Amino acid sequence: MDIQEFSYQGSPAKIIFGRGALNRLAEVIDALGCQRALVLSTPQQAADAERLSGSLGPLSAGVFAKAAMHTPVETTEEALQAMHSNGADCTVAFGGGSTVGLGKAIAYRLDIPQIAIPTTYAGSEATPILGQTQDGEKTTLRDGAVLPGAVIYDPELSQGLPYAMSVTSGLNAMAHAAEALYAKDRNPVSTLMAMEGLRAFTEALPVLKEAPQDLAARSSALYGAWLCGTVLGQVGMSLHHKLCHVLGGSFDLPHAETHAIVLPHAIRFNEAAAGAELTPLADMLERASAGEGLYDFVKELGAPLALRDIGMTEADLDRAAEIATRNAYWNPRGIDRDGIRALLDAAWRGERPQG
Ligand code: NAD
Question: Boundaries of each Fe-containing alcohol dehydrogenase-like C-terminal domain copy (predicted)?
Fold first, then answer.
């Protein structure tokens, strides 16, 4: 094997994985040298957050259940007040990427320890990346201070994630790994983790379609989420993530569904330049093309296939192509407006991607 030059930086985060791992939360808070944790959640998961807070006894500084999509700065400011008035010295983010984002935004401002307990597969808990919105504008920063110091992955917590969300969330995670395969700054370890994450999801999601409560499949998917999130934090993303950022930010399309729809098209587009890097994924999906294999996988799972079904209008496609090609960014295949317009058109119609 001819190993090319590479650099690698492992994550300093402590990972605790296992069924019932949630029971170790008090021990984790203590190990971080903290005494009072503010438990964060969305309004939808407030009851679970309250239960978790109750189980912590005096280690809990209460619950702040207002986490929202895209981490609005106003919500963060309200949470900072709750931290202060409740005498909290760390946070416990219990939920998906939105709640983890709030924990990161607080840590970024207060430089305090944070623990993440993910209940979706988005993977934010494993990255030093924070996206925030203010006055309708989303900005993203990368800073070691926002990486949670400890993550508790308990598969039992994702058993209640509805099947449709499990699939789109899983495909969101697979997108991180698929783009990691051809990342400019990839290394042998990121490629190993990406392939293992993709394998975990290709095995788990079809099982969850038949049996959404299956704990073995839930643990495989959550393991995949950790791997895919870790590579997202380690190597640069390209066309697929750029397109999803544009579609979510400028057209307000839902995050995970957008990833699920765009992924086969972005990967098919990039196969022209990164065919060798994507061959292992094509082989895993038992197709000649990774992009076509992903399309068939998404279809078999019953996930959304067309941007027109999640709120995008045909009239917006020109503007989306224009925004997505306005600023230069690295991608294995050169990006041109007509090529991206054609890609978006096929994704809008829900067609099987063509080479
Ligand atoms: P989310 O956190 O917005 O959750 C969606 C909904 O599902 C919420 O109402 C939530 O309370 C609910 N939910 C979560 N887990 C559940 C469960 N087990 N059972 C029932 N309901 C549950 O969605 P998400 O897809 O996890 O995260 C999306 C956000 O994360 C986006 O804002 C995205 O930009 C961000 N993100 C950031 C990174 C990063 O590295 N910074 C990575 C991935 C995603």
Answer: 167-348
Inform me whether the pLDDT recorded for 286 exceeds 90: yes
pLDDT at 330 over 80: yes
Mean pLDDT calculated for residue range 4-32: 95
Q: Is the CB of 42 under 6 A from ligand 1?
A: yes
Ligand 1 site, residue 116, Cβ cutoff 6 A: no
Please identify which residue in the block is written with the tokens 């992955």. Answer: 153
Give the position, in ligand 1's atom list, of the atom nearest the Cα of 118: 15
Q: Is the CB of 45 under 6 A from ligand 1?
A: yes
Q: Containing domain of residue 140, as a range?
A: 14-158
**Separation between Cα atoms, residue 263 and residue 261, nearest integer Å:** 6
Residues 182 and 143 in one domain: no
Residue 189, phi then psi, degrees to nearest 5 = -75, -40
Q: How many domains does the chain have?
A: 2
pLDDT for the residue numbered 4: 84
